[in-house]
């Protein structure tokens, strides 16, 4: 790639183009990535797919040389090319995982009328606007939905990673009561909205990196996680579905204002959270709270709630 095209490509990647757009723009790179992934697809090993997806999803940034303006050489062009390859691999792996989860290899995946009506009534206020889920009704009606495997692959495209029960919101509200609180990486702000409705006046932030697929309401302030913490100095920080291997959680543990950090995520270390930093940080005691984990739906997610509490000085 020439200097100008490398610059333009890097700027374009920041807009999160879709798989079809990338593959059409870089057919030669896509052919190479496809050949590399062929054996992985043939093995159909979920653990291997998750491992490769976590690796491909890592977002690299130009180093200090490139930031200082040295973008006129082969090094920057190679850096951008590698990022294109990684993005192609990530999106191809996500498409393949989607087809495995749903059993649909072509065409659109959709609920039939019965399953769609039940899912809509259980989980959404209207359209794809989530509501606090009634566990009582969920436990009665969820077994009647036989297309369960379609739900998460369908809604993840809109930045929905889980559903929160009324009981979970009540329990979290008790944890946050009387303390300044901030939700980071909040997506469409659903969790914060539920907590505000429960009487918790927390702030909400996100860096808008999913702007192409998530509709951010005005209540979600456009701020990176650490920038938001440093600006508002919350005692409690909450994050639902932090990206796997992210770089911001390490910094959370270093913010002196934070006394409690609450994580809602997956038990799979390939899907959410920076587990290496969870285990190596020494400022907080932490543990899963099983009673809260059971309040996240659907249960097939195998989700959990972890609470980090700053150690006494």
Question: Overview of this structure, please?
Answer:
The chain folds into three domains: 3-102, no CATH class; 113-158, no CATH class; 163-310, Rossmann fold. 47% of the residues lie in helices and 14% in strands. The chain has 15 helices and eleven strands. It has helices spanning 3-13, 19-25, 27-43, 46-56, 64-67, 74-102, 113-123, 135-141, 148-155, 166-176, 190-197, 225-232, 248-252, 275-280, 290-293, and strands spanning 124-126, 129-130, 163-164, 181-183, 203-206, 221-222, 236-240, 260-266, 284-288, 296-297, 303-310. β7, α13 and β8 form a beta-alpha-beta unit. The N and C termini lie far apart (54 Å).
The main sheet orders its strands as 6-5-4-7-8-11-9
The appropriate CATH architecture of the largest domain is 3-Layer(aba) Sandwich
Order of helices and strands: HHHHHHHEEHHEHEHEEHEHEHEHEE
Q: Helical content, roughly? A: 40-55%
CATH top-level class of the largest domain? Alpha Beta
Low-confidence stretches: none
Q: Quote the beta fraction.
A: 5-15%
- Total beta strand runs: 11
- Average pLDDT rating: 84
Q: What is the H level of CATH, i.e. the homologous superfamily of the largest domain?
A: Vaccinia Virus protein VP39
Query: How many angstroms does the end-to-end distance come to?
Result: 54 Å
Total individual domains: 3
What is the overall number of helices?
15
What is the radius of gyration computed over CA atoms, rounded to a whole number of angstroms? 21 Å
> Rough shape?
globular
Reported by name, the CATH topology of the largest domain is Rossmann fold
- Biggest sheet details: 7 strands, mixed
Structural class estimated from helices and strands: alpha/beta
